[in-house]
Write a structure and sequence with these properties.
The protein is built from seven helices and 14 strands. The protein is an alpha+beta fold. The protein has a domain of 256 residues: Beta Barrel (Lipocalin), CATH 2.40.128. The longest helix is centred in the last third of the chain and has 21 residues.
Length: 386
């Protein structure tokens, strides 16, 4: 195992800031926040049936010009607080579409259907039913049948950037879609698939996904930081004069970003979330990350040792941080690509997502697979699956 150097942080200061922003509820998933959010929606809908959509909220506020960027004691923009990037806007743009939705399209997309949200997570509310598709993994086949809508949060608003309702979070290339892979990337991906084909998906623990094993859930924190797509795409940001901490609600992953002249890790040391260093360019926090762990794939594409992600965090109003990112990896992509994602203020408490599946359920997952294998070898069926 590689020993990764750990940055020195004023833990007392960081813990004081964290205590202001997070409530820890012990073991179990952070479903409580989903329940409190549902009850809040019901109460608000009862008290104010005229809740406006994104489209209706575009009229400029009369005091918009009076807003000033909040600042920390050292004079830099204050990015601290709870934020979310969950949105109805897809990561990549539909082929042939322009860069923005019409406001009529936005209103239709954001409209709930009865007791079901605009982007349902359950089959009961209209999500695609894949339960009969035996070619899929159990996770994909049963997705939408395992939880109620209280558990899911797949977005309720279209992403608005510069007053435009965006049709994709990716903005370059101009078509809003990821660029083609290089021949080397395709070779590496095929090589890995050929290796995996030697095994069944439940043959041993290392074949199970990193998130299921409670090791890391890379999508929300990245880099780049992307909506998780199911639930818990929420963050806590804490900053000091020389560090910025970003904690994802999902599996409580944490990035600690150092400010100052970079002192990069050796090329062979590649921790989860990479090696991040930041600087201020005016009112924008610019973060450059290298040395990303080779297992931390980005939409199925593993990062090469040359991958660099540049992020910009800019506080644009009281409710919004504009998050911009660029991914450069000439080994894997034919060109650089990136996008813009609004981080919206999240006025709810975040609860600890104490992921324990990898600790307590892994033995059940693997022993269940061994049971099924014994049934098949004996020519028997499992009555519990019939």
């Amino acid at each position: 195992m590689i020993s990764v150097p750990v940055s020195i942080v004023d833990h007392a200061e960081m813990e004081v800031e964290m205590s202001k922003r997070m409530v820890v509820v012990g073991r179990g998933h952070a479903v409580m926040s989903r329940y409190s959010a549902l009850f809040l929606v019901v109460l608000c809908a009862t008290a104010a049936p005229g809740v406006v959509s994104t489209a209706a909220a575009q009229a400029p506020a009369s005091d918009a010009g009076k807003w000033e960027v909040p600042r920390t004691p050292d004079g830099h923009p204050d990015l601290q607080g709870n934020w979310t990037n969950m949105t109805l806007t897809p990561f990549e743009r539909e082929e042939g579409r322009g860069p923005v939705f019409t406001w009529a399209e936005v209103e239709e997309m954001e409209q709930p259907s009865g007791d079901c949200p605009a982007n349902p997570g359950t089959i009961a509310c209209g999500r695609e039913d894949n339960q009969g598709d035996e070619s899929l993994s159990n996770e994909r086949r049963l997705s939408g049948a395992e939880y109620s809508e209280v558990y899911w949060d797949r977005g309720s608003r279209v992403a608005i950037v510069d007053g435009e309702p965006r049709t994709s979070l990716v903005t370059h290339p101009a078509n809003g879609r990821l660029p083609a892979l290089t021949p080397e990337a395709e070779r590496q991906i095929q090589e890995y698939e050929d290796f995996r084909d030697q095994f069944g998906q439940y043959d041993h623990p290392e074949l199970r996904p990193l998130g299921e094993r409670c090791i890391v859930f890379g999508s929300p924190l990245g880099p780049p930081m992307r909506p998780q797509g199911a639930y818990n795409s929420n963050y806590i940001i804490v900053q000091t004069a020389d560090h910025v901490m970003i904690m994802s609600e999902m599996v409580h992953d944490v990035r600690i970003i150092r400010l100052g002249e970079p002192n990069r890790l050796p090329a062979h040391v590649r921790p989860w979330f990479g090696d991040s260093w930041a600087r201020w360019e005016g009112d924008a926090l610019v973060v450059e990350t290298t040395n990303i762990n080779p297992q931390q794939s980005l939409r199925g594409v593993p990062p090469s040792e040359h991958m660099r992600v540049t992020e910009r965090f800019t506080r644009v109003d009281e409710e919004t941080i504009l998050y911009e990112f660029t991914v450069e990896d000439p080994t894997m992509y034919t060109q650089a690509w990136g996008g813009e994602i609004p981080l919206k203020k999240f006025d709810e408490m975040l609860y600890e997502f104490a992921c324990h599946e990898g600790n307590y359920s892994m033995s059940g997952i693997l022993s269940g697979a061994r049971y099924q294998e014994r049934m098949e070898a004996q020519g028997s069926s499992d009555s519990r699956r019939d």
